[in-house]
Structures are given as C-alpha cells and as structure tokens.
Amino acid sequence: MASRTLAGRLFSHNKQTLTRAAAASNLPMIRPTTAVARIVGGSLYRQSLMAAGFSTSTRVERTRGPATTAQFGQPTWMTHPHLMKEGEITPGLSAQEFELRRTLLMQNLPKGSIVISTSHRTRFMTNNIFYPFHQHTDFYYLCGFNEPDSALVLEKNDSPRGYKMTMFVAPKNANIEMWEGARTGIEAAKEVFGADEAIDANLFRYRIIDMASRHENVYFDYPNPSMFLPMDIAKKLHNKPDSEAMATTKGLSPLIQEMRVIKSEAEVKIMRQAGEISGKAFIETMKFTNPERLEHQVYARFDYECRMRGSQMMAYVPVVAGGSNALTMHYVNNDQPLHDGDLLLMDAGGELNGYASDITRTWPVNGKFTDAQKDLYGVVLHANKECIKLCTEEHGLTLNQIHDVSMRLTKEGLSRLGIKPLPHDVDRRLYPHHVGHYLGMDVHDTGDISRSRPLKEGMVITIEPGLYIPRDAAYPEKYQGIGIRIEDNVVIGKTAPHVLSVTAPKEIVDIEYCCASVKSD
Questions:
Q1: How many CA atoms lie within 13 A of 116 on its CB side?
Q2: A Pfam family name for this chain (predicted)?
C-alpha cells in the first residue's frame, strides 16, 4: 500500500468533533482525567480548561477577582459573560477545542518541526482611517487571538503538552489604548490564551529567524510583507531567492485546511446560528421590499436585521440585484432603484463569531411572481432541492459530481419549458458558475481543498444552482433579463443532509406570504 502524504494523513477523520477525530486517527488523546492544565500557561487559561472539561490537580480559585476589571483586546468570558460561557476562548469555542486543534496539528508533524502563523495587519482606507479588522482565519483557528500584527509559534518538543506555544503580541500601552482601545497584552496572552511564553510583537522580526533555525522543518505561509514582517525576513523564512537557505520550509495553510474542512459540533452550532440569523433577516427584508425601494436600502435593511440578531458584520459584500442586474454574478454596486414586475436577487449572509453564512434568495419586488418568473424559478428550485438530497457521505459524491447533476437538471428543466439553449450556452451564460463551494470561517473556505474530493460527514458546503436568461433573441422574450439563484448552506451528514439556511423562505408560496405581510420602514 502506498503511503499517504502528510497532508493526506493529517485529519483524515470524518467525524464531527476533534475528540472523535483523534480517537479515529489513533492519536494520543488529551483526556479530561489528565492534569493538562498544569502543563499550559496561566491560571485563567487553566480555569478555562477546567470549565471545558479538563481536570487539574492544581487548585484554581473560581472567583472573578481582578479579571473582571481587566481590559482585553477582544471579548473574554470574564468581561463579556452575556456573550460567552466560562471556559470559552471565543464565543462558542472552548479552550479545550483550541488546545485539541494545536495538539492534533503538532502530533502529525515530524520531530524538529516549528509552525509559524501570523495575523493580518491593520489595513487603512486613507490616512489614519482603518478598515474594520478581520483576522487571518488560519491564525484565528489555531489560537482565537483577534488583534493585528501578532504571531503564533508552535515548536514541537517532548514536553507533556507536546509543543511550546509562543505568542508575539502588542504590549499594554496606556497612551495608545486611550486612542485605539484595549490591548490584551503580554501577560494575558499567557493567562487567557495559554501561551507558554509571550513576547513583544516588535521583537518578532529579530527573534523568529533564530527560532526557526533551530528546527529542521519550518511550516510557514509566505505573507504580504509589512512593517511587522519585512520582505527580507519573509524571504529567509520561505527560502525565497536571494535569501540564506536555513531549513526545509513547507506551506502551513494546506495542513490547517485539512483540519478546517471538517467542522466540529461547536463549529456547526455557530454556523447554524449564523444561518438562522441570516434566514430571519431575509424574511424581514422580503417584507421590506417594494417598488419604491432602492437596492442599497434593501442592503441596509438586511445588514440591520443581521446585526440586531447578533451578527458582527456581513460575511461579504452582498449582491442586491434588481431585474437584469442579476445577470451579473457578482453585482455589488447595489445603487439602482427597484421596479414593479422585476425580481430581486439577493446573495448575502451575516458573519457570527468568525463563521460565515452565504445564502441567496430571489423574490418579486411587488410580492407576486409572474407566470414566466414561476417557470424559471421552478427549474432552479427543483435543482436546488435535488442536489441537497445528495449531500451525504453515504452517497459518496464530490461537489463536482453534484454540479454535473445540477447542470443536467437545469437542461431538463429548460427543455420542459420549450427553451432550446444555443450550443454550450448553458454552462457559459445561462448557468456559468459552480453549484457550490466549501463554507466556514471564510465564505469560500479551504480554497486548496479540491471540489473533486468525496464529501465527508462534517463538511459544510453551499448548494446554489442558478439560471440567467440574457437579452438575446434566441430565447423567449418573456424570459429575457431574468436572473434567479437559490443558495443554501448544508452540513454533510452520514445519511442525511442538514440545511443551516432552512429559515430563509424559498418555496413560492412562502415567499409570497412573506412579501404580503405587513411591511415596516
């Protein structure tokens, strides 16, 4: 039997929890009966592990104490009990989950390995005006730290923990924090996030080459150079031309993507909440829609409804396309008035606690589908529902194979309507995009994972067939200029799919009912 590659070995599990994954892989388990908390950083992190199910022989006072007055650069279970449970590092995800992620990663690397993961930097739209910060998702997956210009270094060793965890973070600074808000700081990186050592991020460029040079295998992704990680340092780490060869450097992201493509039960729970929030926002946005609205007003209403229900931001720039604007797949200008008799295609989703939803619905601006609109909508809806039925591990299909099914169903539906597409027009103009993609912390998640891989339990994907009839005399005039897409978020189950976006109406009768409901301004 041919040996599998490291990426193939790594996280080949198809269960929904990291604990089950470790057991299935015959990896040494971190069990609740061990004194893991004594291995890792400060007392608050030990307390988080205890709350997550670990035991410790070290007595930890469970009072809030000074931590309740401490300020951190992100929500913690001490400062935001209305958002987080005790023991969580980020909302919905425990210290145990992050510890297991790092442990599984390091256990599957050879001896003499070091992992270097860097955060995103602060990005500016103009002088001193920054964009809302969104963390690098691989970095966030490993540690949950949500500040810019930071780094995580994991060095494999023979300690009970199996690795040393070093974080480079911005130190506390009262003058800067007065202007920019609280920082977590060096001590809290150990106390809260479980680092064995925490170092001023300003020293990263001076320390990292020496740290990496002590290891035979360096796992690192070549980043965009910045003041935090200058070009010359990045080149040395990645053996780029004009740099000194120092070790065997390998990409880190492909390994993390192998982990991320299978979601844990906690991750699915967050994504289910994100889908429910966005689904309810679609209901309210349908009720809000009428021919007097502008596309950007509909966008604003959806954004408002998501945020009022807990989403921190939009997962991406929404498509709010009235009428023939829907023929542009990624129409994001969202600046045209809506018109009576047109359809409105909206591709949007809120992000919740670092996880995206990605839903598309199409509905009539005036609340009633025309017969021609119903004809085409029925074709897309049938393809959507039939493809969702295939989203199980038992079926053993890939996303590419499901796409082929959706293409066949679309052609059959057009034929029933008497529409004869021009040669190759279905996959070039009428339905030019793929039926789906992986979904998770990123909207287009785990981009290096092939869509030709058989779907496994715990994967989350989108199913989004569409139909876009151009203004072309080759097609019946009553259908020209109509664009329809129906997109759902689906968890792959063993024998049955689980639709996360079920709250968003997609049956014609349900959509028309929502549109006929009392509208508010």
A1: 26
A2: Peptidase_M24
